[in-house]
UniProtKB/TrEMBL annotation:
It comes from Eisenbergiella tayi. Its EC number is 2.7.10.2. Keywords: ATP-binding, Kinase, Nucleotide-binding, Transferase, Tyrosine-protein kinase. This is non-specific protein-tyrosine kinase. GO terms for cellular component: plasma membrane. PANTHER family: FERRIC ENTEROBACTIN TRANSPORT PROTEIN FEPE, TYROSINE-PROTEIN KINASE. SUPFAM superfamilies: P-loop containing nucleoside triphosphate hydrolases (SSF52540).
Length: 308
């Protein structure tokens, strides 16, 4: 087994770190049969790789053995973002029959945190992720680790994420606030449903929390409802959680059930994210509805300043 070092790990503020702990806890409550979790998004740059890494890190810090599988074979950013030393083999080597599971598995400088990098870009990513080798890999990892977090490609432009998700126990969708339309998110949801992948929840990312006091009041209100439902009204638990990233962005706590609905908003940027006001985008002022329960827990810029 190779050994690698993460030389650049983002330091989270207290509130964001607690959000990941909540996500980790909800994942544990979602059931023992949900150990292999894929993380996807609609478009690039919504934060799915950061969420995948931080969730895996939180699981490891909680004393569980976890492996992060970088299945974004087309455009991986994991190595560059966390400045790791080069690994000789990666996932694409294994899927193409050039390396064994032992060859591609890496121990890291973080206790209980293991990683499998994507490897060189192959000419046929979708075919590789859809073959038996990937399924057998996940079955093996399921037996060796407490949790397997799979960082998959965005579903808005390629089908790779859905192909990989069909071998997982469930998927979490990362959505950038104010950038993704309901129609686009619904399309991603439908792609996952076509391969019978269970959607565990949504992570609403990069929500502006400046000057808003959602965390305290809504936090307690939500958890009263959540635990009442989980223990009293539901036979099957879900992930029910979302997290945010650093900066002046955060997320408020919301909860919704039903179908995606429209909401007036301004047009957002292009590159797969251009939306009209009539179409509506998923934003922090909405009760997002994706046929699942969700809650977004956020950092607070004022608290960050206090902790410095």
């Amino acid at each position: 087994m190779q050994t690698v070092t993460f030389n650049s790990i983002e330091k989270l503020d207290f509130r964001t770190k607690e959000s990941y702990k909540t996500l980790r806890t909800n994942l544990e409550f979602s059931g023992k049969d949900r150990k292999v979790i894929s993380i996807t998004s609609s478009t690039p740059n919504e934060g799915k790789t950061s969420v995948s890494f931080q969730l895996a890190l939180s699981i490891a810090e909680g004393g569980k053995k976890v492996v992060l599988v970088d299945a974004d074979l087309r455009k991986s950013v994991l190595k560059g973002r966390y400045k790791t030393n080069a690994a000789r083999y990666g996932l694409s080597h294994y899927l193409s029959g050039q390396a064994s599971i032992s060859d591609i598995s890496c121990k890291t400088n973080i206790p209980d945190f293991y990683v499998i990098f994507s490897g060189p870009v192959p000419p046929n990513p979708s075919e590789l992720l859809g073959n038996d080798a990937f399924r057998l890999l996940l079955e093996y990892l399921r037996k060796e680790y407490d949790y397997v977090i799979v960082d998959t490609p965005p579903l808005g432009s390629v089908i790779d994420g859905a192909v990989a998700a069909q071998h997982c126990d469930g998927t979490v969708i990362v959505v950038e606030s104010g950038a993704i339309s309901y129609k686009f998110a619904q399309k991603v949801k439908e792609q996952l449903e076509k391969v019978d992948c269970r959607i565990l929840g949504v992570i609403l990312n990069k929500v502006n929390m400046s000057g808003k006091g959602y965390y305290g009041a809504y936090y307690g209100k939500y958890y009263g409802k959540y635990y009442g439902k989980y223990y009293g009204n539901s036979e099957e638990g879900g992930l029910h959680a979302a997290v945010v990233q650093k900066g002046t962005k955060g997320a408020k706590a919301v909860k919704g059930e039903g179908n995606l609905h429209s909401h007036d908003n301004k047009s957002t940027r292009e590159s797969g994210k251009e939306k009209t006001a009539e179409e509506g985008v998923i934003a922090e002022d909405d009760m997002i509805q994706l046929d699942m329960d969700i809650v977004e827990l956020a950092e607070d810029t004022e608290l960050i300043e206090e902790l410095k």
